[in-house]
Amino acid sequence: MKPGKITITSYFGAALCVFLLSFVMGWSSKWTNNLYYGLMVLPGLVFLVKERGAGLFKLPLALAWLAFLLWFLVPATIAGHAQFFKHIFYVLMFVMVVGALTNPQFFRSSAFVRAQFWVLTLYVFSSAIYAWVTGEYAVGIRVGLLPGRLENVIYASIWLFCALGLALPMWVKERRLIEGGLAVFLAVFAVVFVMQTRTALVGGAFLLGAWLLYALYKKPRLVGSAMAVGLVILGLLFWMVHNELWFLSLWNRGDSYRIEIFHIMIGEWRNCGWALGCGIGFHTEQLLDGTMPIQHPHNIFVAMGLYGGAVALLLFVGLMVASLWQAWRLRDAWGVYLACALVMLNFDGSLLIGNPDELWPLVLLPAAMILSGVLKAQRATQA
């Protein structure tokens, strides 16, 4: 590899780390957006033009990304939202820059994988401790908002569990079992006690199921015994906390209108037409309980269909399936991250195309990392 290429990948790797850190250390979306435009979009465009796409467009997966994003020109044009063209370009640039101009090895290294989890953990617990000490929230009451750009506790909990899913194979491989066990405990405690988000528990169940299936395949007797012991421990823990106020509040919120929102949004999509959906910028006028407006569909797949139509949804599903297949083929742990995110975003996702927001680290980041792994594998076969 040329020395200049190393410099390029080092720069964009550092720029991506700064961009991700801005979600937990930045104070506004404008600050995060400006970092992205200045550090990644403008330099990335220059180098991608210079490198003639850096080999990306020889990959079917990259072409699938291009087809998916270009489709959104159709609903944007129909809705007359010329501003949305810019959002399509921003998403395309993120996928291409991360996919072609960063070092895949670094973002699969123990240093990055572990640091991502511990930075997020530190962010959640330091925010909670500050809120408890200042009296903003009482201990045991759900910490409803976090400081910084990330702010939303649901997306923070999803990101935390995705980072856990990425790091677990690393801890097992390097035999850092104490660190891994502590990480699992803190992640569960953060989700159940601090942020009290049930969406992340779905992701936790997904990760647990995946690991149990893998472990049962490898060592069925040992894992079967461990599962029996684990169930007993879980039963004891439930008996100890089932009457605690914080535990009751976790379940007393019902489904937070998710089922009703799902039916309303599917109905709106049907009324607008299945093929093209309701278009970019659509907002339903229906209210929950007759008083509460609905901000977004709370489901990333429904959002795709509602705003971009069945074509957008089919392209997105195909793209995600192809990405997960490539991750499986290359044994890339970023596939676990992406799968975990998609499972949880069935309950709290919105439109992926837009300015940088919380969905970027959850979906665009792992999908672009998988793309970078595919590109690296192709370059290795051609070398």
TrEMBL record:
Keywords: Ligase, Membrane, Transmembrane, Transmembrane helix. The chain crosses the membrane at residues 7-28, 34-49, 61-78, 84-103, 115-133, 153-172, 177-194, 200-217, 222-241, 300-322, 334-353, 359-377. GO terms for molecular function: ligase activity. It comes from the Bacteria. This is O-antigen ligase domain-containing protein. It comes from Pseudomonas migulae. The lineage of its organism: Bacteria, Pseudomonadati, Pseudomonadota, Gammaproteobacteria, Pseudomonadales.
